[in-house]
Amino acid sequence: MRILVVEDEPELARQLEQALVAAGFAVDVAADGLDGWHLGQENPYDAAILDLGLPSLDGLSVLRRWREAASEMPVLILTARDSWVEKVEGIDAGADDYLTKPFRMEELQARIRALIRRASGKLAPVLACGPIELNPRTGTVSVAGAVVTLTSHEFRVLDYLMHHQDEIVSKTTLTEHIYAQDFDRDSNTIEVFIGRLRKKLDTDRIETVRGRGYRLKSAQA
């Protein structure tokens, strides 16, 4: 899963990026509103963390522009001002959730995970597909109760497929959602990750749809 962080405080932005990467996300960071708006407009993020007090373009304006452009990306707003008026304005502008600074990183991560689950129609905190279970909070994967060790990129591929079961997902889409913007992307490595997942999970639930991509089947044929 890929997250956009729009935050102008360098130290907080660094902390957010580090915590989210450690939690298994690909992360892009923008330090002002204009850059944040552009990145959110041009890239398919699974969620965004948006500060309200930004230079160049304030957070509410960024959010309104995204929503006017019909973006359905889940957005969590951050504000240093403990004002119920701003919270209401943020929600009315299209935010899905909010946190007031200071906050605990664990709470922010939990809220982001919940927003992503809701956006993909998954309400349970642990994702399941037959015997396969993926826990986004702990970053663990198991098959029939046995823990399976995955690399960070293998985990991100499986995480995305688990959130989009029974959907055909192209290699391009997977590439866009498992790598940050500045990463040297290679869509051909997706085939490698898929092959490793099939072997490690000992499953044929990951179906190759010729010429279109991959599909994680929620039920065996």
Automatic annotation (TrEMBL):
Task: Specify the superkingdom.
Answer: Bacteria
Keywords, ordered alphabetically: DNA-binding, Phosphoprotein
Family matches, as PROSITE patterns:
OMPR_PHOB, RESPONSE_REGULATORY
Q: Which residues are annotated as modified residue 4-aspartylphosphate in the UniProt record?
A: 51
For this protein, the DNA-binding region equals 124-218
SMART domains for the chain = REC, Trans_reg_C
Question: Lipid biosynthesis as a keyword?
Answer: no
Please list the residue ranges annotated as the Response regulatory domain: 2-116
Q: Which residues form the OmpR/PhoB-type domain?
A: 124-218
Q: Does the keyword Ubl conjugation apply?
A: no
Residue ranges annotated as transmembrane are none
> Mind telling me what this protein is named?
Transcriptional regulatory protein PhoP
Q: Which organism is it from?
A: Cupriavidus pampae
Gene this chain is encoded by: phoP_1
